[in-house]
UniProtKB/TrEMBL annotation:
Residues 4-229 form the ABC transporter domain. Gene3D superfamilies: P-loop containing nucleotide triphosphate hydrolases. It comes from Lysinimonas soli. Keywords: ATP-binding, Nucleotide-binding, Transport. The keyword Transport applies. InterPro entries: AAA+_ATPase, ABC_transporter-like_ATP-bd, ABC_transporter_ATP-bind, P-loop_NTPase. Pfam families: ABC_tran. One of its GO terms (molecular function) is ATP binding. This is ABC transporter ATP-binding protein. The keyword Nucleotide-binding applies.
Length: 257
């Protein structure tokens, strides 16, 4: 059974009826890593927010398993570009937050948090406050926090968008390592074609005005994704295909350009 199933989803904003999404259908299978790329304003975040239950579609449905999405739910962890950590809580307490809400007993939630903190490589910083962490570390903390709430699905909207190129590559590697050990279904929105190809089983390329799916590209490269794979001809071939699909669009400059 598909894990996330967008069924003819449309969404319009504003009194002038700006159509952000038009009849989008997309199936993401259990355990898949799907990235979504496309020009600015093509509706990537809108699509993700509808799956998160933070926005409502005007028509169509999103199914998660057998259920129609009607609002946010702990089975879907959401990670945004801005690190949504509580500044007054340590890394450990931030990561324990979800399990605490779910009334997981103190000892168990501390252990669970510790497991994910170690998994994202923040073992030495469990007692640190967010303000003492770098951007990449904060985002790894956010990933550990999302995992600790034990969601079936991770919805990530440009989570590495604010990071420098080198940190970004390390974050991608760390995320894939975490994902290979603790498999979840991932929908990951990005502007970055390299990132989209490096991470995904499939890349969904969107186009704008109205936002819709232009092409779905199978990456077909094995995991673990090593540096060798990143630098291979096969990777370059897929990257070129995705690049063309994104940049050879009539509206590739986006509505505000
Ligand atoms: N709350 C809103 N009210 C009005 N218009 C909106 C709202 N949210 C999004 N839009 C419009 O819908 C379109 C799609 O926005 P969305 O943020 O989903 O695009 P995106 O592909 O994620 O863009 P970017 O890559 O620049 O973040 C844009 O033209 C945007 O201006």
């Amino acid at each position: 059974m598909p894990d996330i199933d967008f069924q003819h989803v449309s969404k319009t904003f504003g009194s002038k009826g700006f159509q952000a999404l038009h009849d989008v259908s997309l199936t993401i299978e259990d355990g898949e890593f799907v990235t979504v790329v496309g020009p600015s304003g093509c509706g990537k975040s809108t699509l993700l927010n509808i799956a998160a239950g933070l926005l409502q579609a005007d028509s169509g449905n999103v199914m998660v398993g057998k259920d129609v999405v009607r609002g946010p739910h702990p089975d879907r962890g959401v990670i945004f570009q801005q690190y949504a950590l509580f500044p007054w809580m340590t890394v450990q307490k931030n990561v324990e937050f979800g399990p605490k809400l779910a009334r997981v007993p103190a000892k168990e939630r501390a252990e669970r948090a510790r497991h994910y903190i170690d998994l994202v490589g923040l073992g030495d910083f469990a007692n640190a406050l967010p303000k003492t962490l770098s951007g990449g570390m904060k985002q790894r903390c956010a990933i550990a926090r999302a995992y600790a709430a034990d969601p079936k699905i991770l919805l990530m909207d440009e989570p590495f968008g604010a990071l420098d190129a080198l940190t970004r590559v390390h974050m991608q590697e760390n995320l894939l390592r975490t994902w290979s050990e603790e498999r979840r279904t991932v929908m990951f929105v990005t502007h970055d074609v390299d990132e989209a190809v490096y991470l995904a089983n499939r890349v969904v390329v969107m186009e704008s005005r109205p936002g819709r799916i232009r092409e779905i590209i199978d990456v077909g490269l094995p995991y673990p994704r090593t540096e060798e794979i990143r630098l291979s001809d096969e990777f370059e071939d897929v990257r070129r295909r995705v690049w063309r699909a994104v940049y050879h669009q009539p509206s590739a400059l986006g509505p505000d350009a």
